[in-house]
What we know:
There is one protein chain. The protein is an all-alpha fold. It is built from two helices and no strands. The chain has helices spanning about 20-40, 45-75. The longest helix has about 35 residues, at about 45-75. The mean pLDDT is about 85.
Amino acid sequence: MKTIYDVRRWTEEFSVNVKLFDKQHQRLVALIVRLENAMSEGKGRQEMAEILLDLGDYVDEHLDRKSTRLNSSHANIS
Length: 78
């Protein structure tokens, strides 16, 4: 059975037990809440561009840090 999570609120269930990544994931949750709030206030279209830019920044930073961490983990194994 698939569990459905409410991603609008950070819980420890989402934790990957790496503080840096948990902090980044919390930022993603905040972006989701920000979009939901803008939409409920009828400002979704107005704020969408800024939220998408922030999401793009988030993705770039998150993937860069994840790649760096994976590369350093592989270097330690070799």
